[in-house]
Amino acid sequence: METSAMHALLARQKAAQLAEGAPSAETRIARIERCIGLLIDNRKAIEEALNADFGSRSREATAFTDIAGSIGPLKHARDNLRRWMRPEKRKTTPALLGLFGAKAEVRFQPKGVVGVISPWNFPVNLTFAPLAGVLAAGNRAMIKPSELTPATSELLKTMFASAFPEEEIAVITGGPDVGQAFAGLPFDHLIFTGGTAIAKHVMRAASENLVPVTLELGGKSPVILSKSADLDVAAARIMNGKTLNAGQICLAPDYVLAPRENMAGFVEAARKSVARMFPTIRDNPDYTAIVAQRHYDRIQDYVADARAKGATVVELKPDGEDLTQQEHRKIAPTLILEPTDDMKVMQEEIFGPVLPVKSYVSVDDAIAYVNAKERPLGLYYFGDDAAEREKVLGATTSGGVTVNDVVFHVAQEELPFGGVGPSGMGSYHGRDGFLEFSHRKAVYTQIRKDIGPLKQLRPPFGPGIRKYLDSQMRG
Length: 475
Hints:
It holds the Pfam family Aldedh. By secondary structure, the chain is of the alpha/beta class.
């Protein structure tokens, strides 16, 4: 779509929002219900589109993450938005005015039109999950899905067009040039989910119109494995998180910090857990391929670089199974043992089924290592030592934390989801999404009667105002 056409579409959406005003709860619920219906009715088509885009993608994983994982947030918003919409009463300042009938409150007003730039790794979920908050807050939306998943992007365009007029929700497809122009549109809010490098361009483009942004990025999310952790349970959960979508998850565990004496035990437990989940990989429909050749080459380069610089590389794949000649771009779960910081795998977000495992002597060393790097989107602690857990939680900063598992905090609709610094800004999910996409309008209603204290605030100033000022300047 040409830039001028995008501007015209945005103008139509803004005009419709102004003409119709803030939608009622009933209208918001109806829009959300339509989204739920689209997901249910198009389940098979979504599974097929994502399988085509990835070359091989688990249908069950798609149904779990992209479909059911989207219906949940939409239902939560549908069932709670009436309560979220209620004005929030606040105390007056000074409190004396409240005694005479003054009122202070916060009203939640739709921002207007929200731009949504969704990524390729979970293109359905990361379109619909933000929409739960966008629609609950009473906004309209323009969506730019990824060009790396073209079949899914075209399906999204067809789906939304079947249920929404363009003045409510519109999908714009196209390559990086379209994406850059989209980011520069004068939205009332823009949410981008993707990589940090692209986010800088998006934020720069949005700044030209002073558009507020929510950036959901990523980073190198660490796992701190405690000496008190159950290695078999921890390895099973870590490797499940690392192999889901072949590690192409912004919250995938990016490296493990393990006690030195537990390194061998963790490697063996990881090997067993992968063997149970994936007795085969090459032709296993449960194991997802890498989305594109350039990403496949990038991940393979990480492994080759680590091997060349002295790391031990452990491929967790069935004996005798050759993945060098295959129809799809599958990479076996791979551990990089004792990586050093000069290796690419420790410098960049991996976004694939490769997991560095680094030993530590004391938990203080592990904390220091995490804190020496950029703040990640997620942090994971495994262990039963309550004091140590609290030490890790208090001494590290990350977007969110899951204790004794990975990724799961993203599925909690009552918790805000977002990053910090390089891993993002702003947060959504549940009521936090409603707030993110709402304008929180402060409304103060003055008392009708012009009583003495109010008169004293106007010239000519006398002893009353002086007495009040003196009272305010005490410690």
